[in-house]
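Teaching note: in complex prediction, the entire set of molecules is handled at once rather than each chain in isolation. The prompt given to students was simply: 'Predict the structure of this complex.' The entities are:
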Amino acid sequence: MKPRIVAVLQKEFIHIWRDPYSLLIVFLFPMMMILLYGYAITFDIKYIPLAILDQDRSPASQQLVEKLTSSNYFRITARLQDRRAIEPGFLHRRMSAVLVIPPDFDRRLTSRPETSVQLIMDGANANTAMIAMNYLKSFLTRTTLELNQGLLATPLEIEPRIWYNPDLKSTHFVVPGLIAILMMMICAMLTSLTISRERETGTLEQIFVSPIRPVEIIIGKVAPYILLAFLDAMAILGFSHWVFGVPIRGSLALLVFFMLIYIYASLSLGVFISSRTRTQQAALFAAMLGTLLPSVLLSGFVFPIASMPRVLQWVTYIVPAKYFLIQARGVMLKGVGFDYLYLPTVFLLIFGTLLLAVSVKRFKTNLEG
Amino acid sequence: MRRVLHIIRKEFIQIRRDRTMRALILLVPIIQIWVLGYVISSEVKHVSTVICDLDRTSTSRALIERLSHTVYLNVRYHEERESLVGEYLDAGRAMIAVVLPAGLEKNLQTLQPSRIQLLVDGQDANTANVALGHIAGILEAYLTDRVRSQSAAALLSEEIHLLTPVVQVWYNPNLKLSDFMIPGIVVFLLTMITTLVSAMGLVREREIGTLEQLLVAPIKKHELLIGKIIPFALLGLFEMGLAIGFARLWYHIPIVGNLGLYLLLSIIFLFTTLGLGLLVSAFSHTQQQAMFMSWFILIFVLLMSGFLFPIENMPRLAQWLTYLNPMRYFILITRELFIKGAGLRHLYIQGLILCLFGALIFTFSVLRFQKRLK
Amino acid sequence: MKSMDNAYSVEVNDLTKKFGRFVAVDHISFYVQDGEIFGFLGANGAGKTTTIRMLCGLIRPTSGQGRVEGLDIFTQTEAIKQDIGYMSQKFSLYDDLTVEENLVFYGGIYGMPSSELSLACEAVIQRMDLVSQVKKLTRSLPAGWKQRLALSCAILHQPKILFLDEPTGGVDPISRRAFWDAIHQLAEGGTTIFVTTHYMDEAEYCNRLSIMHEGRIIALGSPMELKDRYQQPTVEQVFIDLVKPAKA
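The expected output is the structure of the full assembly:
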């Protein structure tokens, strides 16, 4: 039994080695992504371009503007003279918001019970507009409270304590997701591709007329990819840990154990896909639709599941990456143990075993028929 | 010209014959807009929250009431012991824990400062940030209302002066994120499809050997490439139309600007994506390689385009890099034109830059393509 | 462009092609007369395909001279392409096009005007006896029919010279015989045929033969001359006789 498996193994390693292209992508891609997330991508919105239309030009109005821009939420990019300048300003993207201070601002502020300033927002970018609006509103409330010190309630201070990722770095969040996606790509996509390639070129037939058993073929074909996925995961972990300080707070051994379970589930998915498709191209599309896209979009990798519509939330329950992500983040960022994370494990085991059972049965008849 | 037409015709026959291709052409844009529309443009909502009320007064209950009646939070748990709230975060049951301190009401009445403790699961930095912002906003609004009612009597005394904002939101008054994100998805779709088909189209002919047969024919290099590319361009535009139509019907995105202008700018943009695809095909031997390489490039083009992550907040070096990304300009064009109705005089710079990119990439890929075998 | 009263379809002098340090074609010289069937005989990897590809302008020679229909193979490759037909061992056809669509397409890329094109298609369909297959998808054809279709595509624009690179691979003997009948007819009509093969029986059909080994031409002449010169009953024996000592 041994030498036969070894022959398949050897051949599969040669395939991987001769295709440096895919190998390069598998290793280079996550590193580039980590670099990008580590250096370039931030979600926080700062220095929103703001235009001032100061119709008062009094010390009080100037003071208000100064106070507003002393935070780094805004930077003043234009001073308008006229309301008519607002529309062209928005269309030429000179600013995202305009603060309009009315003509008698100074006088009203000290003599009238209520004074209004107007905020005009370019709502096209809903995210930026929302943040700018919230900030401006809270700024005005605070200014009111300062104006009436001792007369009105003091602000409610919020004291946030941020756990697991105190600096709110997106790399910490993204790295476990990258591992999940890459492992899925190697285990499900590459394996289903190699199997369907063999079927297309007829070599599978050739192997089948030899006395090798189906189990031996599957193990022989799949083992190199397990190793590859594992090496890749370790490379990502090491790189993100040493270069970007992504923590591994829990037990590394537990993380490795979870990886093995996840690999098992992804491989089953890969074998399942190849048992259902006849050509490489079909396998490629099925793998993209069935593994890659759900792992990116519906796993909670960057897009939070809680915000999705109900139907899509249901779909996420059959995405293996979702479960692995819970585990990987749990171990790496939260540092919690198996007692918190056993449920996803159980699910992945059931998922993998079911798919494998169905496809092995199908695989045999496919080759015989 | 006649030769070009023959290639175009052949390309269309092949698309028509391919059953999977036909299905993909119709389904991909719709499914992508549908799913991505929900996934990408969903605001942070229903963040799972646990509240620990140590005050138990009408004030704290009013605050809880407000926190519960917002789509942003989903107050699922009430915990009585402060020491246990952390457990909810560890187990992943809640993302935010709000602790209302004892003496909250008394402090507010006596104008003493009070602190509300928030425990936030910071793994997802973006969601954490946004949720924090919303909670701050809710507390702020509560305070403002309180100040108003408290000062209603005092207002007459002219001792108190309020500074209030009057907010006007232009173009997208309800601040719908989907209006902003979905035009971006349309651009992504167009970029992806045209780059992929043009990358794989030539490689496919190389793989099955027909390219060799074309190369011994007296057809000019540019005739061959133009003939291959025109069907892809038409396909891309068709897909774009389908996607925009679906987005309009399903997500009701606004289209304020001139669609004729948009078509023109799209065609200019297509030269860059199709040229990129050709360039990829010049470096690939198999369709699988072409596909991997295209994806590799596409992901970076996507992330550095301002589609998902605002460019203004990237470090300077990264911002410079985005200037080399054609999709950056087209995303901007699309959003400005759709949402704000920007016209040529607002977008001509972007248009000119795209022309330049298109000409460069396309010329380079034509030069790179050899009518010889390696 | 074309030199005066040139009786040679192909003229090659000291032609060489190197891939890195590997010499695929090593200073070969020969000529092919107008209207003859010229065979290139050799084992796999002897340099036959490389030679054909150089003559068709698909790869650039490293050194030497060559002319096809009087046109230089270094500088006038595009002009040469109008005069030649090419059919490779892969039968480069579009599987998802019908027989007719393949013909129209290949005629089209040679720039034939549509009136001429439909006449030419009609003629070639008759001539190659493809009438019953016209509407069928190429994918569904047996290898013999595919071969006929590939030949039809290559001769549609009435080339002066036809390059056939191992045109009979994977095809049954009856189809092969029919194929050679068609080739002879073409030659009688004045088309020069340049064919590579490793089937010895096919070599006997050629007017003149060159035997290639490891990038060099080691014998050249009509099948009769070669058999006489090396005193062997068949071309096959000549070939084996020549190649064996070279290998040893």
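Point out the following to students. Residues 175 and 181 of chain C are 10 Å apart (CA to CA). The mean pLDDT of chain C is 88.
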